[in-house]
Amino acid sequence: MTVDSSAARKPRRSAAGKAGTTGTKRTTVKKSTEPELVQLLTPEGERVEDARYAEYAEYVAGITPEELRGLYRDMVLTRRFDAEATALQRQGELGLWASLLGQEAAQIGSGRATRDDDYVFPTYREHGVAWCRGVDPTNLLGMFRGVNNGGWDPNSNNFHLYTIVIGSQALHATGYAMGVAKDGADSAVIAYFGDGASSQGDVAEAFTFSAVYNAPVVFFCQNNQWAISEPTEKQTRVPLYQRAQGYGFPGVRVDGNDVLACLAVTKWALERARGGEGPTLVEAYTYRMGAHTTSDDPTRYRGDEERLAWEAKDPILRLRRYLEAANHADEGFFAELEAESEALGKRVREVVRAMPDPDTFAIFENVYADGHALVDEERAQFAAYQASFADVEGA
Amino acid sequence: MAAETKATKSMPLAKAINESLRHALEADPKVLVMGEDVGKLGGVFRVTDGLQKDFGESRVIDTPLAESGIVGTAIGLALRGYRPVVEIQFDGFVFPAYDQIVTQLAKMHARSLGKVKLPVVVRIPYGGGIGAVEHHSESPEALFAHVAGLKVVSPSNASDAYWMMQQAIQSDDPVIYFEPKRRYWDKAEVNTEAIPDPLHRARVVREGTDLTLAAYGPMVKLCQEVADAAAEEGKSLEVLDLRSVSPLDFDAIQASVEKTRRLVVVHEAPVFLGSGAEIAARITERCFYHLEAPVLRVGGYHAPYPPARIEESYLPDLDRVLDAVDRALAY
After folding, report:
1. A171–B72: do the CB atoms touch at under 8 Å?
2. Is B10 touching A (CB cutoff 8 A)?
3. Class of domain A2-354
4. Residue B136 is a catalytic residue
5. Low-confidence stretches of chain A (pLDDT beneath 50)
6. Which of A218, A392, B86, B191 gets the most CB atoms within 10 Å of its CB?
7. What confidence category does residue B306 fall into, taking pLDDT thresholds of 50, 70 and 90?
């Protein structure tokens, strides 16, 4: 549901989003069973037709079967990549992995809503969003293997480096969006964070700054119910999307396991940003199916019943049910995707295992853009120390 | 001192920073000034006086009262291609932004393997001696100099204030620019057409032969007064204005100490693990056979900055520095 306390104009409509242009055959029509969230596809894979969500549904009204298959493919490949990374951690190839299992719809839906010129500020779990932005998934593994601390060029895909300290990137996104507005560009910015980050001062300050400067930024909060061991009740007394009200911009809760709803709501929010209507908070209500990271043990703080209840709402399963019921995908599509998925897994394994350690002199590289006398001095000392062993070996 | 030309004007240190910011705003449309009260008010010390009027609210930005937000959004603006100069209103107010400075601003260039540059200047009026209330008189420069990825400078006079601000803004690295607030009203000649010294180079401001006094920011003037007093007693002190705390110009300190053989470092910040400690360690290493005395330090105590009525007993003053000079010369 929307809480819109601003006096904002109605968002501009994209021509492609006109109702009635859909080529989608609807199998069933029903109302959402979930209270207080935007849902366009039920867990059973049935298309939701609910007047309350019409404002958002418009943004996916024209979606083609091919695009739907594309979303399905994105989610399947992202999950496969994620599973491969978890396995590589177990094999000792990665030091750590933060799995996105269960959050594929939230990430693919929102990621596919962005345009090339938009800018994305991720946490460290946005593997699906990275995929949508065209970042090679193997690039994400460097920091988890311990060969770099990020390392991709944020500007080549407008996808910022992963941010580990919780919530900091919300301010970077806001500042970037302030710059977009100064430039007179019609790009938008999207900041990802989670339910835990909603408690961070930086997120609150980002809300304040973005509201005061009417910055074109979407705050995309994946409420996956758990901040390591702490449930959302330890972060807030009100539903998170309602936080926006106090800052004077709209907040929307969307079914985070419904890729269609995430796509629609994020497009709506990005359009608001582009149209000069300022920030929006989207709370994607989802579930972290796996551990916080490979170092975490969720059995210490949560039971199976909860996970099983969420498994029934699986984001991939529900889109598959819809595709099948609507005859939008045949066995050939699923078989091809399975083969593509295997190939991706194989490539990820090979690339990671072949990933070289950096040269030890990388310690001293890029500490400063314009150099620094102390770094130069210590690099020279390090080199002399290293060379002293070479002398011994050569003797 | 050069004769006053068209390009040379006498002005207070605060005005020199103002002129420098004005010049930068004129020269580069990507330069922004942001902070609390920097607009209409012109900053609580009037350092940004008149800038918003001339450059508009979109370039001289009054921000919400949130230091982490100021630095965090400045990082975002820098990522977009801007060169923000942010003001932290007082030294003791920087800590809400410390995380953004240390964790994000300092490390982004390295994390991106050099692909991202963050040309952000963080201006911090610092130091005591103005009778202020709590949290308005601190000297936290060592807390920033300790962090790789940051550069830390502090001018001692109006001319350096002007030029070092120009250079800080032009730097592709984040620069923490500590302004000696008790010297804001001290006047000096500023030649806006001069060729400045490199930003991180120390300068001998008074030559001497018996002992070197090394200082930066507000303590340079004190050290010059100490040298005057010592001269009356027949002691020849060299005064070195370090100007930069990160990097420190050890070559310049070494050259001076090899000549004078004695070194006293003076800063307002607490002595314990302060920049003087680092200088003492490195100079001992570099000049071990030249030194006639251990490197001594004069600075604040390991105690919270005291109430204003007794701050003069906490801050280095003429007698305390002279005492250290005497002790060093007694070896």
Report:
1. yes
2. no
3. alpha beta
4. yes
5. 1-29, 34
6. A218
7. very high
